[in-house]
Amino acid sequence: MNTLFEIIKWIFFFLTVVVGIVLLRGSVIFGPEYQLLIKQILMPGYLVFCGTMFWYIVARIQLGYEEDHPHQNKIYARSFIFGVVLGVILAVGYMFI
C-alpha cells in the first residue's frame, strides 16, 4: 500500500504543475476553447488526487515516525478509501457548481 501512495504522490505532484500551467497560461498555450475543455476533464481528476493526498497526510500523522506499525496497511487502506470518497465528492461538487 505504501508503494501505491508513493506512485499517487508523484502523479499528484506532476498534476499540480500541469493544473497550474493550465490555470495560469492555458488560454495562451491551448486557446480559449480548448482551455475550457481541459479544465472540465483535468480538474475533477485532480480533485480526486487532492482528496487522496489529504487522507495520506492524515494516515502519516496517525502512523507517526514508526516504519513498522502493526496496523500500517489497515490505516493506509482506510485513508485511501476515505480519500477517494472525498475526492469524488469534491469532483462532483466542482462539476455541478
UniProtKB/TrEMBL annotation:
Protein name as catalogued: Uncharacterized protein
Keyword line: Membrane, Transmembrane, Transmembrane helix
Ranges annotated as spanning the membrane: 7-29, 41-63, 75-96
